[in-house]
Amino acid sequence: MPRGDKSSYTDKQKRQAEHIEEGYEERGASKEEAERRAWATVNKTTKGGKKSGSGRGKVEDHSPERKGGKIGGKAKRASSKKSTKKATAKKGASKKAALHGKTD
């Protein structure tokens, strides 16, 4: 079996890789890079290719699938800090005062 042969993967794994690949392409990765990352994610999640048979099942690790969402959410969490909220409130108050002709 040559490197890169996907015959030992189940249909479910192939569908997962295709779906993950589409997500990476939407984020701007090239076709080749998206495919590479997708199969890396599937391998990490399902621990490589699987074949049918009794007792061959392995527990799936979904942490690499969650990783992307957590990284993407950091920017949102950072913007909700108290100092940022205070600065935004002051800015809004000064604009409101300027609209109504009030000065401090």
Can you offer a commentary on this structure?
With 104 residues, this protein is mainly α. It has a domain at 9-50. 63% of the residues lie in helices and 0% in strands. The longest helix has 18 residues, at 82-99. The termini are far apart. The model has no long low-confidence stretch (mean pLDDT 77).
Helix content estimate: 55-70%
What order do the SSEs take from the amino end to the carboxyl end, as H and E? HHHH
| Structure classification | mainly alpha
**CA-atom Rg in angstroms:** 24 Å
What is the number of helical segments per DSSP (H or I, 4+ residues)? 4
Uncertain segments are none
User: In what range is the share of β-strand residues?
Assistant: under 5%
Please state the overall shape, judged from the principal axes of the Cα atoms.
elongated
**Mean model confidence by pLDDT:** 77
Strand count, sense and barrel status of the largest sheet are: none
Give the number of DSSP strands: 0
Give the CA-CA distance, first to last residue. 77 Å
Helices, strands, pairings?
Layout: H1 11-26, H2 31-46, H3 63-78, H4 82-99
